[in-house]
Structures are given as C-alpha cells and as structure tokens.
Amino acid sequence: MQSRLPFGDALQAELGPPRHARRLDSSPRSRVWRVELAGGPAVVKQIVGGTDAGERYAREVAALRLATRAATPVVPAVLGTDPGERVLVLEHLDHRRPSPDWIVDYAAALARLHASAGPDGADVLPPWTGPGGADIDAFLRLAEALTVSVAPGVRAELDALAGRLGRLPGNALLHGDPCPGNDLHTTGGVRFIDFEQASWGNGLVELAYLRVGFPTCWCATAASEALLHRAEGAYRTAWHAETGAVLPADLTDACAGWLIRGDALVPRARRGDTDHLARVPRRDWTWGTATARQRLLHRLAVVSRMTAGHAELKRFGTLCTALHDRMTTRWPALPPLPSRRP
Fold it and tell me: What integer pLDDT is reported at residue 1 of this predicted model?
C-alpha cells in the first residue's frame, strides 16, 4: 500500500502539488489515492497490471470524457491526465450509504450514462462483445456434467441467441462493469466510476444486470419483483427523456446471454481461457457476496421464468428449468442471493 504517488511535473504544473496523499482500496489492476489539491480534494487513479493496461486506460479516459456531455452529471469531472503513467485525476465525490431502493435511482442514472455520448461513442470505444460458440459449448457441457439431457434444438436456439445479441444496435456508452461499488450515491445524484471495460453497445445488456444479479460484480444481489419493475421503469423513462426513443420491453435475450457466460462467475482478473462452468459440479467458490453456485442458480431461475412461453428460447428455457431443479436437488442448502448490498 506504500506505492509512490504518480503525480508528475506536468500534473503539478496544471493542478498544483498534491498534499496529504492517502491510498484507498482498489482492485489489483489499479492504484488509487485521495489527495488534497489547491481546489479541494481529488482522486488520483493509476491503471496497472496486465498487458492490457494501456487499453483499459484509453477506455476509461474516453468514456469519462464522453460521459461529461450528460446534462445531469453521471461521472466525476476529469481534472487532469498523464497518459505516460496511465494516471487520471478526478473530482472527489462524497458517497452516502444507498437507500434500500437504491436501484431505482441507479437505473435512471445508468440510462443517462448510456445516452450521454450521443452517436460519437462508436468512433472512440470498442464494440461490446456478447457470448459466442465457446460459451454455448461450455454451458451444454455443464448440463451433461449434471446429467441433465439437452433436447434437440437447444444448440440452434443458443446459436440464434448469440446472433441476435451480436446484432443489437449500438446506441449506448456501456460502463462495462456497472456494479455496486462503482456507483457513488451523492447529494447530487448517482455518479459512476471505473470505466476500464467501457464499450459501445446496447443499453439493454446492462439494464439486464438488475434481474440477473449483477453478473460481473463482486456484489451480487437480488431485488424484489416490485423493485425491479420500478427500476426498469425508471431506466426506460430516463432513456426516453434523453433520446426520445422507446426501448424494446423484452430483456430475455440479454439475461440469457449473461447466464451462459462462465466468465461471469469470477473476478475480472481471472477471466480468459478457463471454462469456469466446468468447475461448478466439482466445487463451489466464493466471490464477494455469493458463491458461484448461488449466482448460477439465481440466473437459471430468472431465465427459466423469462423464457416461459418464449417462442425463440422454448427448448433452452426447459433446459434451464431442469438445470435449476437438478442444482436445488444436488445442493439443497444453497441460499438465495442477498437482497441488500453491503
């Protein structure tokens, strides 16, 4: 925790010398400090670790600059940057403990973030990537490992699902990891931080986070149906206010896409070539507020309900129900996801 504060001559010339630097908790792929500048408190973030550090820095800077276009602020202000050291200096914001119905304000702010870039995000951010053939293969192997039969036609439905997700119109600045902890609940509203995975895509794939329990997040939670209805309504209302467009009502494809992604069971630093779904039958592991099996069970239940009567995912929905039943029989002590964030 005693790393040197990366605040070079150029930043000091622009912002003045920093004082009272204090290291803050962060992921292993970044270093973060709180400092005092002449204009008040600020946050210094340096992106480190991995061969993709430069790409992550570029994504974060681009996303923050695009998001500052929002009429209602949705990100901290960027005070300065040092590309050579992969450093950002950001406005410091005081975070208050979120209310029990925090996801309503969160969802409205997420919509404003998604809409903030206008059409220009496609020029500076990489496109969002959905699930592909390897994810489908891994999910079907999981069914086989749990001795749940896969009906003819399931693979075709999943291939078509991947195709539909890949063709979703890109119209939004996606955060990439819009998790509890990456949202600051301030007196001026919700602001988002940590844009290292930002991309350009369709906002429905991040609106789906609320139903599937925040799939890329250490803090997995499950809200009540009434609260989900309010939050999704708030997102759609805010999106329409910002863009004039009406979103499709169906989130089934987006939720199903997160279900079949095994990488959505582990932290970002452990994602890559490992088939994490293959590990589930052999052992469970804890990440943040829940275990891998808890997360998977919740997602199966959500998609099972959503695919009931869904013409394009009928066989897949039957498989999800069977997998959910097999998991509850094999591991009857699995608790539901927590309903409140820490």
Answer: 43
